[in-house]
Amino acid sequence: MRILLVRPQQPEETHGLKLIMICEPLELEYVGASVPDHEVLICDLMVDNNLDACLKEFNPQVVGTSCYINNISEALDVCRRVKQYDPGIRTVMGGVHAALNPKDFQNRYVDFIVHGEGMTTFKELIECLDTGGDLSRVKGIGYGKKAGFCFTDVRPFPKDVDQFPLPDRKLTQPYRKDYFYLQWRPLTIMRTSWGCPYQCTFCYNRHLTDDKYFSRSPESVVNEIESIDSKEVFIIDDTFLFNKKRLDTLYHMIKERNIEKEYLVYGRTDFVVQNKEILRKWEDIGLRMLRVGIEAVTNEELDQYNKRNSIENNKKAVEICHELGIDVSASFILQPHYTKEHFKALNRYIKELGLVYIFLNPLTPLPATDLYHEYKDRLIVPYETGHALWDFQHCVIRPTQMSLKSFYRSMNIVYLSVLNPFRVRKIKMRKQPYLLPTSKETWGLYKNMFITMVDTLFAYRQHGIIENKNSHTRIKNKATEEVGHDLN
């Protein structure tokens, strides 16, 4: 079968990282690799809005797409356009949001919804369609019947993740030059584990694996690293720095094979504090940046998130990384009760830690998380109608001590203060941010950072825009109420 896999665009209203980071659609590369006996093409609309051309030239029999919470409407629009082109093409919706919230995609333009683990499910679904098999025997799907969507049992996440094929990066070859993260370019992303062994209340991803943690074998991981062409590799595990023994084994295998890469990874500060020598070894083989969730400036807030960590660990970990020559990128959660004094304290704390790469995220209680049940009655942007603003840069919960305008302005003041070039130039870093644009790429990065700042400053206006667009969106997507199409 001819299978077209589409990554939808980001909404115009979404801020987030879209201007300073576009990484490959790893989930589609995995899905494409899971059906090696079929003809597969990836269409990345975040890089090139060429869906119509792909449909015409490739003439697919199945189109699959996936999304996060902020671009649900864009993913549904892909299915709408596909059905308008040819109603006979089967459309499949998947991704991390559909995995836990499949009913958000009950739409007459969607034939199948994949919930739970997707790679194995997609492979079996394609086999079923190709052979005319019984859909009810495929675990982990929803499909339309005359009475509405019917969902089969959820597929449990496999314990042996080495059974997954390596992602097929040849499928994204036409776009690879356009994938980047800040000045990390060209960049390849990879995953060595699924799930997270911790239980932070704001975390969505741990629910994807039912609070279980599954890691690939060191041999599988190193084989994939060795196959990657780019020098810069972003390991997107929720917590890569976890198992000391596994990390040490990976270190020795990479060292023995003389693999020369530069790595960007996620980790926790308590692991850094307790395992300085592991960090030292990984710096030796190319660890250049560690992304950590510092989240807060007080232990009380960390306890509210069930982080099982401390601000003392956060401070010590940043010091260790700076000592070893590892740059730190840190994220912080902005609570709705914050005042201007909270933002001033946050600004001071960031500067005390010597941080430059920061992400300020208004508290966003994603559906299926513990926090969602706590805050769902306080939302000012219901995700059912305001998807685009669920990008971790907009307030979906109304600030209680400040106006929206003042809240966003305070965010921007922190960003501008931390990223002051006169401050940044005094901080020793492995990958210094570009203080002056010196090439087409750096000019582009500066322009995008400026646009992001301006967007954040005026983000309060988009709440009204979204509200005004909701009636139009409901009309445009009225098919969400029309799910009666029988696939049997």
Structural overview:
The protein is an alpha/beta fold and 488 residues long. It has two domains: 2-159 and 474-481, Rossmann fold (3-Layer(aba) Sandwich); 179-457, tm_1862 like domain (pyruvate-formate lyase- activating enzyme). The protein is built from 18 helices and 17 strands. The protein has helices spanning 26-33, 51-58, 72-85, 96-100, 119-131, 205-208, 218-227, 244-256, 269-274, 276-284, 299-304, 311-324, 340-353, 370-375, 404-418, 421-424, 440-457, 459-476; strands at residues 2-7, 21-22, 39-44, 62-66, 90-94, 112-114, 141-145, 148-151, 180-181, 187-190, 193-194, 214-215, 232-235, 262-266, 287-295, 327-334, 357-362. The longest helix has 18 residues, at 440-457. It starts with a strand and ends in a 12-residue tail after the last helix.
What does this entry show, briefly?
With 488 residues, the protein is of the alpha/beta class. The protein has 18 helices and 17 strands.
